[in-house]
Amino acid sequence: MLSGPFGAVKEQSSGLYAQTFAERGFVTLAFDPSFTGESGGEVRNVASPDIFTEDFSAAVDQLGLLPDVDREGIGAMAICGLSGMALTAASGDSRIKAVATASMYDMSRSMSRSHKDGYTLEQRHKVIEYLSQQRWIDAEKGTFALGFHELPFDANGQLLKGNRVLPEKLPANPDPVLAAFFDYCRTPRGFHPRAINSTTAWTATTPMSFFEFPLAANIAMIAPSPILLVAGANAHSRYYSEDAYKAASGPKQLVIVRDADHVDLYDRLEKIPFDRLEAFFRQNLKQA
Question: Which SUPFAM superfamilies match (predicted)?
Answer without folding.
Answer: alpha/beta-Hydrolases
